[in-house]
């Protein structure tokens, strides 16, 4: 986006510079011709006055005397009634002048002076002026490109941040940061993304509550029924028909309990954002790189996948969770950091070893934000203050 905006500014500057340059070049040509015409007229008047003065003093009017006043590319013609016309051409004058040659004629007293200047003189002056104009236009386009790049960067910055926030939301993160901008489109998109993040967070919370509630309301009565039937089956005063009936009921309760367990496991394994899953080894590498970029270079970061590298899960919630853990590691820890990932049958285990705390206290005592994220995701976490470890168990989703 920034490149296209910069290109748009440059194209606009080129169009404006082209229109202004074309108009200015025509004006320059007219101005140069007018200036050369005035210059020749002044020269003709000076020469005519000089000839009159020489004639009044009785000095002869010879070509040798007039040659000193003839410019290199000009032809001089002096006409007097009593002596006829005298024509002198400069060394660089082209006799084959065209119709575009500059011609002037001035009369002082009885002396008439005509000057003819070739069109190449005006053309040379015009070319020099146009070169300066072209240099100025190129400088203006370069300045416009720099200004356009700065403006394009400022305009594109909130959209780039929106793109990053949208990508994070697509990975399942809801702690996205919105840009501060007065651009109506940015405000509208930011509001939509904020609403989507709130809906995602609420969906995750309701999903966790649903699984917990369903597990409680279904398994509790099933467990009670199974215990009642088992207790009833232990009685010795039951006849064979009643005992067979209780056995069938126990089998039905066990099948129903198995079905409920399968449904709950399916619900727990439901992906937060469908299609955004990555393998555990890819996620581990990405998170380790994020930590290396944020922690000082003096703190070494290593990542290992102990088992289940092919396990897939939504990366956003894990990234958000471990970002909050990273804050604790950065603020409290001093040693190297080790991240160990393991894909288990029902969970993903993440072990964070952040080294000893600076204060000697438990580095994970105040990691309430991380614990909250773990609870939202339906997992649990525990810390070992003596080893500077934090173990996180998350459902595979």
Molecular structure report:
This protein is of the alpha+beta class and 397 residues long. The protein folds into three domains: 2-121, Beta-Lactamase (2-Layer Sandwich), CATH 3.30.450; 205-268; 278-395, Heat Shock Protein 90 (2-Layer Sandwich), CATH 3.30.565. Helix content is 59%, strand content 16%. It contains eight helices and eleven strands. It has helices at 2-56, 63-67, 119-170, 184-233, 240-268, 280-294, 315-332, 368-376; strands at 74-80, 84-89, 102-108, 111-117, 278-279, 301-307, 312-313, 337-343, 347-353, 380-384, 389-395. It has a five-stranded mixed β-sheet, covered by helices on one side. It is rod-shaped and about 165 Å long. It starts with a helix and ends with a strand.
Quick structural overview:
By secondary structure, this protein is an alpha+beta fold.
Shape: rod-shaped
Output the helix-strand order.
HHEEEEHHHEHEEHEEHEE
Tell me what the CATH architecture of the largest domain is.
2-Layer Sandwich
Helicity range of the residues? 55-70%
Could you name the key traits of this structure?
four-stranded antiparallel sheet; alpha+beta; 3 domains; 11 strands; 397 residues; five-stranded mixed sheet; Heat Shock Protein 90; Beta-Lactamase
Topology (elements, then pairings):
Elements lengths: L1 H55 L6 H5 L6 E7 L3 E6 L12 E7 L2 E7 L1 H52 L13 H50 L6 H29 L9 E2 H15 L6 E7 L4 E2 L1 H18 L4 E7 L3 E7 L14 H9 L3 E5 L4 E7 L2
Parallel strand pairs: 6-8
Antiparallel strand pairs: 1-2, 1-4, 3-4, 5-7, 8-9, 9-11, 10-11
């Amino acid at each position: 986006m920034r490149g296209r905006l910069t290109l748009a500014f440059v194209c606009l500057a080129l169009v404006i510079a082209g229109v202004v340059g074309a108009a200015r070049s025509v004006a320059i040509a007219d101005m140069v011709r007018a200036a050369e015409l005035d210059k020749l007229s002044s020269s003709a008047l000076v020469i005519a006055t000089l000839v009159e003065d020489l004639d009044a003093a009785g000095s002869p009017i010879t070509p040798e005397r007039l040659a000193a006043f003839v410019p290199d590319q000009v032809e001089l013609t002096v006409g007097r009634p009593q002596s006829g016309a005298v024509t002198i051409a400069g060394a660089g004058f082209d006799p084959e002048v065209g119709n575009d040659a500059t011609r002037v004629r001035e009369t002082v007293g009885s002396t008439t002076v005509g000057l003819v200047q070739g069109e190449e003189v005006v053309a040379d002056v015009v070319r020099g002026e146009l070169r300066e104009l072209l240099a100025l236009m190129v400088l203006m386009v370069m300045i416009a490109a720099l200004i356009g790049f700065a403006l394009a960067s400022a305009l594109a910055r909130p959209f780039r941040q929106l793109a990053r926030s949208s990508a994070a939301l697509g990975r399942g993160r809801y702690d996205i940061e919105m840009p501060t901008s007065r651009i109506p489109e940015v405000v509208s998109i930011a509001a939509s993304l904020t609403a989507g993040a709130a809906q995602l967070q609420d969906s995750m919370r309701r999903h966790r509550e649903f699984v917990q509630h369903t597990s409680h309301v279904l398994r509790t009565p099933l467990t009670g029924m199974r215990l009642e039937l088992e207790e009833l089956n232990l009685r010795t005063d039951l006849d064979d028909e009643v005992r067979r009936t209780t056995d069938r009921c126990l089998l039905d309760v066990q099948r129903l309990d198995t079905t409920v367990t399968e449904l709950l496991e399916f619900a727990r394994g439901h992906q937060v954002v469908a299609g955004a899953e990555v393998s555990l080894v890819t996620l581990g590498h990405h998170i380790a790189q994020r930590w290396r970029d944020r922690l000082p270079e003096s703190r070494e970061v290593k990542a290992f996948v102990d088992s289940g590298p092919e396990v897939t899960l939504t990366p956003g919630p894990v990234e958000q969770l471990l970002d909050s853990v990273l804050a604790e590691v950065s603020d409290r820890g001093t040693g190297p950091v080790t991240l160990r990932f393991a894909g288990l049958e029902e969970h993903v285990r993440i072990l964070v070893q952040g080294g000893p705390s600076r204060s000697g206290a438990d580095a994970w005592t105040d990691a309430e934000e991380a614990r909250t994220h773990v609870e939202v995701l339906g997992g649990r976490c525990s810390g070992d203050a003596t080893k500077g470890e934090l173990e996180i168990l998350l459902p595979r989703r």
